[in-house]
Amino acid sequence: MNKQRYYREGYPRGFRLIAVIASALLIAPAVVVVLTSFNSASYLSFPLKGFSVRWITAYLTSALFTQSFTLSLLLAAAASIGALLLGIPASIALVRVRFPGRDLLQALLVAPLMIPGAVIGLALYAYYINIGALTRSFPGLLVGHIIIAMPFVVITVVGALSNFNIDIENAARILGANAIQAFFKVTLPNIYPSIMVGGFLAFIYSFGQFSISLYLSTPDLDPLPVALYSTLRFSHDPRVAAAGAVSIAIVVSSMLIVNRFTNLDKWFAGFRF
Amino acid sequence: MIRMLRENRTVVLALPVLAFFTFFFIVPIFTLLALAFNPKELGSIAIKPVLTLENFKLFFSYPVYRQSLINSLWLTSAATAICLLIGYPVAYMIARTASKRVQAFLVILVFSSMQIDLTVRIFGYLTILGDNGLINGSLIRAGVISRPLPLMYNSFGVIVGLVNLSLPFLILPLIGIIESISPDLLNVARLLGCNRWKGFMKVELPLSVPGIITGVLFAFAISMSSYLIPVLLGGWGRAVLPVYVYQQISNQGLWQRGAAFAIVLLLTNLMVVFALIRYYSRVYTKRMLAV
To answer: Between A and B, how many CB-CB pairs are < 8 A?
Structure first.
């Protein structure tokens, strides 16, 4: 008898239908954006008028892409690297040491996910003005992005380290490796996929971040989400759809790659409040 | 044995991030708090050593601001409830499906929709829900309706947007919890005479409460803070608190008021989060005692 026998009967009644509805809700806007970006008409219309890459070309040659997209890319790369450099050591301490205030520190590092982006952006802006530095500068913007990227790194790496059997590292220690060697030669290669995932999620979250950038972006240059918002607020510019289609392509293909070398469904599994 | 090798020196690894968060997260939040208690002064952000409650009084004395908090709370609660109802089955299928392909599809779908630029997703919804959008356009052409249905610039539009925004954050924490519930428990319940649905309600649902709490916590906090969705899909009739925070600052230049409004938003959020975490630890302790 297979112990999974009862699951063969399927899910509780109605689950499958609800899951289809939920998936449709999640996928619908992305599908529409991709379709619109290939529409030849200069206004939004359904059914589509015809197939054309003119909006994609228009987007790829506009300042939206050459400047804002590039800025967002740089910003997201720097923010995810910063979050990894600060977050990995912190996660090690969180998992391996019982120190007073441990739970508090963990809550602090995940808090940016639960505190309104507008509040963090506004608080940082007020802070920068009062200390007289970093206001509306790239480093100031970067700091905000590292803060909001941190939860993704911490959740992922804490989860991976909790599931990692520390006896393997201890074995390396007994065989003569010092703490640093043991970590880099044994533990790191084992949790490396999770680190990649954490860095990836941090990267894409920073790339799409709007609220923080609204308060902190430099006067002459907006990151892509803010630039798209300014465009979208006043007109139905099909270039926004084109920009969307490009970023959807990036996100979906990177998720496909990430899912190949790690179990994304286990992302949250090792993490507990 | 293990403890011997867990060196307490390791704790220094947390110091850089602690310093970073102190300087760029905790202190700024307190700066905001201090600013909120300063008297309003047009265009000035410098902290002054004067304490006043006038910004908070103003917030609670104007019906339009009070209403924005109420709007925020009920729109967010409705969206979170819908997220839980439709998100749980998705998490359940990801955790329990025997097909690797279905699992990969759903996981990538959930992660991708979490990571696709929100502006882009809203653009998609504008196209679907607008007066001559996908739904209304098709229905009118098919002759089902003569005037467009009000799908946008009302609560419906905002809730649809908020559900799309926070659904992935509710689903992801749930998957691991459901996976960790042994299928044997359900099998036992089935052998003892429960039907499929009752077995789920009596065995799996109660055991997944910690995941539900984490997911609801994320979904609520994230919906509550959204500025873009209410602005673009709701219009001014459904103005929520984050909208007024930005409006006080960008349109009126009154930073102290904006800060006070932001603090109200932050405190509301934290109260809900703490209430949920308290409930969670109670449930959790009860569960531990029961085992």
So the answer is: 342
Look up the CATH number of domain A56-266: 1.10.3720.10
Query: Which residue's entry shows tokens 């009154």?
Result: B254
Helices (H), chain B: 2-5, 15-21, 27-36, 54-61, 63-96, 100-115, 118-129, 134-141, 155-180, 183-191, 196-199, 205-207, 209-224, 228-229, 241-250, 255-290
* CATH value at residue B92: 1.10.3720.10
The whole-number average pLDDT for the span B220-224 is: 87
Give me the number of domains chain B comprises. Answer: 1
Which residues neighbour B155 within 8 Å (Cβ) at sequence distance 6 or greater? B75, B78, B234, B238
- A102 vs chain B: nearest CA distance in angstroms? 10
Between A27, A92, A169, which is nearest B109 by CB? A27
CB distance from B190 to chain A under 8 Å?
A: yes
Q: What is the pLDDT of residue A9?
A: 58
In one-letter notation, the amino acid at residue B166 is: S
Please indicate, yes or no, if residue B40 is contained in any of the structural domains: no
Q: Which of A7, A122, A269 sits opposite B179 (nearest CB)?
A: A269
Domain that holds residue B125: 54-290
Q: How far is B136 from chain A (nearest CA, A)?
A: 10
The answer to whether A71 and A207 have CB atoms below 8 angstroms apart is no
> Å from B243 to nearest chain A CA?
9
> How high is the pLDDT of residue B82?
96
**ipTM computed for the complex:** 0.82
Tens digit of each residue's pLDDT (9 = 90 or more) over A156-189: 888 888 878 888 888 888 898 888 888 888 888 8
Residue B161 lies in a domain: yes
Whether B3 has a pLDDT exceeding 50, the answer reads no
User: Cβ–Cβ of B32/A126 closer than 8 Å?
Assistant: yes
| Range 19-78 of A in CB contact (< 8 A) with B | 19, 21-23, 25-33, 36, 44-46
For B169-209, write each residue's pLDDT tens digit. 899 888 888 888 888 888 888 888 888 888 888 888 888 88
Is B67 part of a structural domain of the chain? yes
CA B172 – CA B168 distance, rounded (Å): 6
Name the residue ranges covered by the structural domains of chain A.
56-266
